[in-house]
Amino acid sequence: MSMKVVEDRANGIWPNDPRLHLALEAARAGIYEADLVTGKNVWSDEIWMLYGLAPGSVEPSTEAFLATVDPSQREGLIARIGQAIKSASVFEAEWRVHLPDTERWLMCRGSPLPWVGPGPERYVGIVLDVTPRVLAERALLAQQASLKHVLKAIPQLVAWVGPDLRYKFVNETYARSFGQPTESFIGCTVEEKVGAEAFARAAPQVARVLAGETVQFDNDVLFADGRLHSLRMNFVPEGDGYIAIIADITQELAIERERERLRAQLELIGRQQVAQQVIAAVAHDLNQPLHAAATYCEALRRMLSNGYAAPLVAETAGRALAELGRAGVVLQSLMYSAIQPETLTTMEVTDLNAVAAAALRRFRDERRPERLCI
After folding, report:
1. Phi and psi at residue 286, in whole multiples of 5°?
2. In terms of DSSP bridges, do strands 157-161 and 122-129 run parallel, antiparallel, or are they unpaired?
């Protein structure tokens, strides 16, 4: 070792090797050597920047280094340094630099140099700027925490299943549906949790999703409440396994069935109301020719009892028959409409009104006022 290097190291300056500094700068790193006897350190040029110090602003030492550590972590770091020295082992630590307006995280790995006495006298190590990694990990943890909150809040059942059909993750909704804690699912097979019958029904769809296809299907699964629940399964490929996003549509289907029942009931009520209207209209229009026919028959009785001439009696009888014929037309029209197959299979409320109107028009057009003198 040259006298210049010895002199520089004695003054706390790392030897000026351009290649070494270029590598350290590229790695966002610095190197140090700590004298355990004197407490003095030798820092490379990069160490000053990492510690947030101006080069040469302080005497390099363990105390000067500890002063740059965030106060909340300083005590713990001192304990780890002492433990490493006591056991003459590799020292590893990660800490935050105490800076007013910048967040910087450093990681150190130091090893004791060979020694001849009862313990090591020097440590040499490297300090790395790991701020990007720490911030990325923090962001990832925040995203994971947010995702857990979302998965906890959504009503759907969510599960992550591996290629061996064993659970890697389930959300609380999934676990609660089966009345078990979430951790009890991890490592268990899907068949163990959902039951052999439900799993057998889903097996073809599972094969499709494991082949890389997104699938949707419905299945009935027994839940912790002892009832079969109708589930709409959405399986999405994920790595070698799949993500299951499942909606419980039991209540939805029950509502739909009730809606269909009420719709059919309303249609029946509508048909009944129209039928009543038709019957009332027919009864009204039948009553007129029947009443007229009855009047003519009463006139005939009187004519016959009073000896009226045959032509007048015949005319009156003809009028009675004509009124009865008009009543028959109403009944024939109604019967004709009722027995048509297309009317029976497609009959709706509006169709019944049309049928009634057509039946009434048939004899209304023929009906003319008649005057009877008795």
Report:
1. -75, -35
2. unpaired
| In contact, 85 and 56? CB cutoff 8 Å | no
Amino acid at 166: R
The Cα 15–Cα 45 span in angstroms is 9
Per the listing, tokens 């039951």 go with 195
36 alpha-carbon distance from chain centroid: 60
- Find out whether 244 and 213 touch, Cβ atoms under 8 Å: no
CA dist., res. 175 & res. 165, Å (int)? 17
What gap in Å lies between CA 337 and CA 356, rounded to an integer? 9
Q: What is the total residue count of the chain? A: 374
User: Among residues 226, 231, 245, which one has the least CA distance to residue 150?
Assistant: 245
Q: What percentage of the chain exceeds 70 in pLDDT?
A: 84
Taking Cα atoms as reference points, which of 52, 60, 95, 89 lies closest to residue 76? 95
User: Alpha-carbon distance 266 to 39, whole Å?
Assistant: 94
Q: From CA 281, how far away is CA 224, in angstroms rounded?
A: 59
pLDDT digits (tens, 9 = 90+) for 236-278: 999 899 999 999 999 999 999 999 999 999 888 888 887 777 7
357/354 Cα distance (integer angstroms): 5
CB proximity list for 268: less than 8 A, separation 6 or greater: none
Buried b (16+ CB within 10 A) or exposed e, 334-363: beebeeeeeeeeebeeeebeebbeebbebb
Q: Band the pLDDT of 353: cuts 50, 70, 90.
A: low
Query: Do residues 202 and 249 make contact, with C-beta atoms less than 8 angstroms apart?
Result: no
Helices (H) and strands (E) in the chain, counts: 13, 10
Q: How far is it, in rounded angstroms, from Cα 76 to Cα 97?
A: 14
* Contact yes or no for 71/166 (Cβ under 8 A): no
Full-model pTM: 0.48
97 within 8 A of 52, measured Cβ to Cβ = yes
